[in-house]
Design a protein that fits this description.
alpha/beta; 8-stranded parallel β-sheet; binds nickel (II) ion
């Protein structure tokens, strides 16, 4: 069965058919889904959704684009949610310099603070890092993220950076981009990295793989991602699904 390590089924784009879609996943070979919080509101909704579905787990955390109005009371709140058995990781957290805000210092502060939280709770982390490779790595090293462990979600850097994270013991999340014609850099990373560190992810509703690129994504598209990885690695899609499922269980300690 396929393990989707990163989904956002709380997103409003699933409002009209969320339950129907979630209930259809098992029959289509999707065994487990981790829904990932990104803001205060989406973390709240993530918690509600995963409590209702046996095959779902959740991650709680605040994405770099949403850290502007955080304060310490939010950290206490995340901590209380993380105590629930259905919550398996802290995330998604990190740095995103694609837009000019929030200010980099504010992003760095809350990234480091949430790494502290994960360390304190002994929970794996889900890292979001865009256009911020060196700062992400520097903060993670300073905060001993290698002792926490986790996944670099939607990995978007090259093999040099991949090596750094693999050496720290991290998994790399591979999704729809690996099927894109312009996804050569990611294909090189997949070729370079060992199979036992790959996990599948959708980041749905975003990043639908070819042939559904541009449409709303869901876990149902993951066979296309497994197929693309299988071609690069020269093994069957079934093996990719089996190995990445085990990797995901190790990652989230299930
Ligand atoms: Ni995400």
């Amino acid at each position: 069965m396929i393990f989707d390590t990163h989904a956002h089924y709380d997103d409003e784009r699933f409002d009209e058919d969320r339950e129907e879609l979630l209930l259809s996943l098992k029959d289509k070979g999707i065994g487990t889904v981790v829904n990932v919080g990104a803001s205060v509101a989406s973390t709240k909704k993530t918690f509600e959704i995963v409590k209702e579905h046996d095959f779902m787990y959740g991650a709680v955390g605040i994405h770099p684009e949403d850290v502007e109005r955080l304060d310490e009371s939010h950290m206490e709140w995340l901590k209380s949610l993380a105590a629930d058995e259905k919550i398996v990781a802290i995330g998604e957290i990190g740095l995103d310099y694609y837009y000019d805000e929030p200010e980099r210092d504010v992003q760095k502060k809350w990234f480091a603070r949430q790494l502290d939280l994960a360390y304190e709770l002994d929970m794996p982390i889900i890292i979001h890092s865009r256009d911020a490779a060196q700062d992400t790595l520097d903060i993670m090293k300073a905060e001993k993220a290698g002792e926490i462990g986790g996944v670099i979600h939607c990995f978007s850097y090259g093999t040099e950076m991949a090596r750094e994270y693999l050496n720290m013991g991290f998994y790399l999340g591979i999704g729809g981009v690996v099927t894109f014609n312009n996804g050569r850099k990611l294909k090189e990373v997949v070729e370079y990295m060992p199979l036992d560190r790959i996990v599948l992810e959708t980041d749905c509703p975003y990043l639908s793989p070819v042939p559904n690129r541009g449409k709303r994504n869901s876990s149902l598209n993951l066979p296309y991602v497994a197929e693309a990885i299988s071609q690069i690695k020269g093994i069957s899609p079934e093996e990719v699904i089996k190995i990445t499922n085990q990797n995901a269980r190790n990652l989230y300690r299930l």
